[in-house]
Amino acid sequence: MVRMELRVVLATLAIFIALGGIGLSIHGSLYYLDREIWTGVILIAIGIAGCVTMLTLWPRDLPDRTPPEHPADEASPHEHHPHLPTQF
């Protein structure tokens, strides 16, 4: 679970990088600054690629590929859990 949380944090950082790129591109467009426009476009592409990469489901995230130190939840679907409401 810690690995998943780190990926969410990195995806969030990637989104902020993309938002900064959008701001930089708009600033460059307003003042006719070609270098800032292209830098912003590159930042947008890096941010989107980083977010997609971090939030993509990887093969080791599947339940049958869970590492041995983190056993998969093998509870029966008919087993009652006290924190879940009962179904009628």
TrEMBL record:
TM region(s), chain numbering: 7-31, 37-58
Q: What is this protein called?
A: DUF2964 domain-containing protein
Q: Where is this region: Disordered?
A: 63-88
Question: At the top level of its lineage, which domain of life is listed?
Answer: Bacteria
Q: Which Pfam families does the entry mention?
A: DUF2964 (PF11177)
The record ties this protein, via InterPro entries, to:
DUF2964
Q: Where is the composition biased (Basic and acidic residues)?
A: 63-79
The keyword Transmembrane helix appears for this protein: yes
Q: What are the protein's UniProt keywords? A: Membrane, Transmembrane, Transmembrane helix
